[in-house]
Amino acid sequence: TDEGAANYMTSYGQGVGCETRMILGSFINDGETVLDVGCGPGINMDHFMQFGPKVNYRGTDYSDRFVRVANQRWSSGKLMFNGLAAAQSTPHFFVGDCRKIEEADNSWDVVILQDVLEHTNGYEIPMAEALRVAKKRVIVTFWRGQMMDDFENDTGVSSVRDDGNDGFCGEYSRIEWEKYLDGLDLHWVETQCSPEANRWNRFYCIDKEMKHG
After folding, report:
1. Considering the entire predicted model, what is its pTM?
2. 198 contacts: CB under 8 Å, gap ≥ 6
3. Tens of pLDDT along 26-43?
4. Cβ atoms within 10 A of the Cβ of 71, count?
5. How confident is the model at residue 87 (pLDDT cuts 50, 70, 90)?
């Protein structure tokens, strides 16, 4: 329902001001442009408006319901931007596919993929698109249960545990994922929410302006 979409993530304890969004915001600077791929109902925008950083923001999501709800909240003035009511007719949220981002190369300072890759069949294509569009950084988060320390498939090789379809099913080997990041030859860092957090997230920030090592 639209009501359920509007409350999504807030009902999980990951609303505005939660630890997940505070950590996410710490990787972004005031004045930067941010493309939030998989934005849901726009909770990151709510958070940035209240807690910073002050950014030029756009959200995209595969779900037309999420996008519709986010734009309804934006146009109704229920969101605040820099202390002013955000009632505007210009949408901030658009339907889009993380595997084919309709943006130019290096067109956004920061691209966010928050809890997105566990909904896709593999991460290589979405990551290639995010890195293409990002000028400075790509920020990726995983719910802790979707990023395993390691496991093996039937051939004894660490791999994606996925049924081959979209949906909340992807579980990735942390070891293989971090090998993939090393292969990009870009600097990256990892951090986590505290174990006491309602949703224990891993955060990866990939810096396009610095080489690996």
Report:
1. 0.86
2. 12, 13, 14, 18
3. 999 999 999 999 999 999
4. 20
5. very low
| Model pLDDT, residue 155 | 47
Alpha-carbon dihedral 38, 17, 196, 26, rounded to 10 degrees: 70
Q: Three-state SS for 92?
A: coil
pLDDT at residue number 32: 96
CA distances from 110 to 2, 44, 135 (A): 29, 13, 7
In the block, which residue shows the tokens 């990726």? 140
Cβ-count burial 131-169 (b if 16+ within 10 Å, e if not): bebbebbbbbbbbeebbbeeeeeeeeebbbebeeeeeeb
Return d(Cα 129, Cα 113) in angstroms, integer. Answer: 11
Distance (Å, whole) CA 89 – CA 39: 19
Q: Residue 31 pairs with which residues in a beta bridge?
A: none
Q: Is 13 left (phi over 0), alpha (psi -120 to 50) or beta?
A: left
- According to the model, what pLDDT value does residue 160 have? 47
Question: What tokens were used for 89?
Answer: 């007719």
**C-alpha distances in Å from residue 87, one per residue of 72, 80, 185, 201, 210:** 9, 8, 43, 32, 39
What is the per-residue pLDDT for 135?
98
Strand 147-148 to 80-81 pairing? unpaired
Place of tokens 């999501």: 61
